Amino acid sequence: MKAIAITHILQMEPSLTQITLRGWVRSFRSNRFIALNDGSTINNIQCVVDFENFDEAVLKEVTTGAAIEVKGTLVASQGQGQDVEIQVSDIEVLGKADPEEVKLTILSPKRHSLEKLREQAHLRVRTNTFGAIMRVRSKLSFAIHEYFQKNDFYYMHTPIITGSDAEGAGEMFRVTNLDPVKPPLTDDGSVNYAEDFFEKETNLTVSGQLEAETYAMGLGKVYTFGPTFRAENSNTSRHLAEFWMIEPEVAFNDLADNMDLAEDFIKYVVNYALENCADDLEFLENRLLQEEKSKPQAERSEMALRDKLKFVLENNFKRVSYTEAIDILKSSKPNKKKKFKYLIEEWGADLQSEHERFLVEKHFKCPVILFDYPAKIKAFYMRLNDDGKTVRAMDVLFPGIGEIVGGSQREERYDVLKEKMAAMDISEEELHWYLDLRKFGTCVHSGFGLGFERLVLFVTGMGNIRDVIPYPRTPGNASF
Amino acid sequence: MKAIAITHILQMEPSLTQITLRGWVRSFRSNRFIALNDGSTINNIQCVVDFENFDEAVLKEVTTGAAIEVKGTLVASQGQGQDVEIQVSDIEVLGKADPEEVKLTILSPKRHSLEKLREQAHLRVRTNTFGAIMRVRSKLSFAIHEYFQKNDFYYMHTPIITGSDAEGAGEMFRVTNLDPVKPPLTDDGSVNYAEDFFEKETNLTVSGQLEAETYAMGLGKVYTFGPTFRAENSNTSRHLAEFWMIEPEVAFNDLADNMDLAEDFIKYVVNYALENCADDLEFLENRLLQEEKSKPQAERSEMALRDKLKFVLENNFKRVSYTEAIDILKSSKPNKKKKFKYLIEEWGADLQSEHERFLVEKHFKCPVILFDYPAKIKAFYMRLNDDGKTVRAMDVLFPGIGEIVGGSQREERYDVLKEKMAAMDISEEELHWYLDLRKFGTCVHSGFGLGFERLVLFVTGMGNIRDVIPYPRTPGNASF
């Protein structure tokens, strides 16, 4: 008989029809109440066993972590905590879980730290916390596709292995097939990449933006959602060597359109999570409350998780130019009292995380979009403003997360782009195709990148980015 | 004023309200009819210019490939070929396209070969053919997510950089940050990967299956959709070094369930394309008809593109055991007449593309699912049948494409798996986590992999896999 998913059983009306369900035992109390979970929802279903009618040897194998098949009828629950439960007529143990071994793993009911669970990344998804996170992650992924598809964007896969080293977003990983001990060399002693698989040096992409621009010039509105890489030795709670990024790119959009898109998009996906992940978010909200109980009052969140998500939906993102932001920061208390690690002294300073957090969390108390940054601290492809010193860049800053989106209107003028590339020493030969876009029907266009894991961090209320991706890659860590 | 996408304008009723549209000029006939395209659809909108009312200098810049903004009203068309057209009141040229330069690129109206266009991969999406392919590709991607999400699967991102070399699906690319000329060596002269970024040797993934299994054991039903890599020197029309793969994995599914899932899934996404890509598929069908006109009758498709897609929807996939298939092949005409390159002489032979195509295209004349293959020609993780010599593997074979899906029920028995790993020399230490799944609540489970580009090939009727991905990676080629 086909098994029914527990998430659906919990929505069904009691009935005399026998049903089948399969899942893993979360607990077995009093030789009578099996809490069964199949991963379809955070909620267990209670399966009530009349132990006198069952073989004792079978019941002995119904232990935490075991996989079982249950047959029975759905009845109104007599107990508290659930509306319905299964009156069990039949149990089959499909896969045992040795209780002694279970004690040593995460399947044990005692609490394990998040750090410890990272070492058991293949089992941690069986816990309530990671089950909830990964279900939310999945729903957010779908919300992203649904948003763009509903709004006439085309999804494109930009290359992961890239022959271009001009993306400029950070350190890259080399991809190679050459002899690792004795690579072939050229006469001048450098590696002879002509003998490599792609007959040139190749790296893992740091961004699909430049390729996405090529497609926006044909399809109009496109987005990417794929893995990107940074070979940076930063062991922080916000950085991964491998992470997923979403990059929409839209022909004919200027910077104001780009801000509208970013705000509308983020609100859509956050709302989608609120509507489609209610149980998981409730669990994660309570988890966060518990976790914060051990912190001093001042470090606790001002809002509960779901209130924070609703706050994002209900408020406009405050749009502030870099120049205004510098004025606010210059005359701010932490700047005057020298509490900032990097004091803001003049226009042109690069903003640090402490400044961004001050603006978002203390000054405006809402998501902020900073725009029109100094050209010299931003990438070569950003549209130069008429003032000749700022570019049409934008960063969306979120409370607790910092930068969640970075984007810009792109420089669409051939001559200006060529000049900037020369000034920044970017090879024209390498990017001839990117320049071509400005030769044939160039137009105003804009886009942004959103780091997916930062979004998942925000929505789940987790504190470390390693806990919101199945198998995190960080310096020294590529297990599994 | 906000521009409206041409795909929507073509659905609107004529009206006196002025609207704005932006796009690229496909042609400008008789100084009067601009065919404008914005990528939102394969269809151009005709913009009618009363040239006496326009500055001649502006009209001179309205050339193929130029980006323009048009204002006007939507009126019923007087001409043939379209229901509505734009009566233009205003034109602004946003980005010119020098006609002399255009002649040298794909923007020129004369036909270019598909091969030639690959060298201009940054511009080819502006052609009708590649615009259509990439829109279909996007819709198919969404259909995949929609199918799984509707059916309670959770999407997971399996790692791209993997420390495991036991995936066993093919040659891998190395990912490294070590000095490319003089890598650090250990005392025994091998590369000292302890000094590399991840402190071990790492490669690009060839499959997310093993990690997907870990999540199926927690979330029940999961799927991946991500890039995978093969460092194989095969320059064929069906292989890429970088391609996208979909891998569902379901706890408690046996091989029959797995076949049901594969068939239901493929039919869903093919139907989605038929329903949501009508115009693009019509174009691609006609393109294929044109292309085949130059071929001898015998090599032409028996069915038009959309008929072929409907045929897949309307027919059950024929399920045939490997053993039956061998019997059919042994006594087939091409085997007896020695027309096969590899003659089928006995049970145990690995099937080649010629055999698969014979079964699908000549014998059964429909999609075929082959199952229960000899254990010795399949991977270690496949469930051994009680006969001790076959495994619960399955391949879905499609006309013109060959293998589109490969999958299996997984070996869920700890002892059997351990034994097979030892026999096949697969490191237990490396895969301790994979063995763990069989220790804690193991259960029957199954999954498969579908090469996304092969699906796109099938649905678009294209002949070369390099033409259905934006930037193909093949031996010697990682341009852009």
From TrEMBL, chains A, B:
It catalyses: tRNA(Asn) + L-asparagine + ATP = L-asparaginyl-tRNA(Asn) + AMP + diphosphate + H(+). InterPro entries: Aa-tRNA-synt_II, aa-tRNA-synth_II, aa-tRNA-synth_II/BPL/LPL, Asn-tRNA-ligase, Asp/Asn-tRNA-synth_IIb, NA-bd_OB-fold, NA-bd_OB_tRNA. The keyword Ribonucleoprotein does not apply. Homodimer. This is Asparagine--tRNA ligase. Residues 134-470 form the Aminoacyl-transfer RNA synthetases class-II family profile domain. NCBIfam families: asnS, PRK03932.1. Keywords: Aminoacyl-tRNA synthetase, ATP-binding, Coiled coil, Cytoplasm, Ligase, Nucleotide-binding, Protein biosynthesis. Its EC number is 6.1.1.22. It is found in: Cytoplasm. GO terms for biological process: asparaginyl-tRNA aminoacylation. It comes from Rasiella rasia. It comes from the Bacteria. Residues 274-301 form a coiled coil. Signal peptide: none annotated. GO terms for molecular function: asparagine-tRNA ligase activity; ATP binding; nucleic acid binding. GO terms for cellular component: cytoplasm. The keyword Cytoplasm applies. Pfam families: tRNA-synt_2 (PF00152), tRNA_anti-codon (PF01336). Belongs to the class-II aminoacyl-tRNA synthetase family.
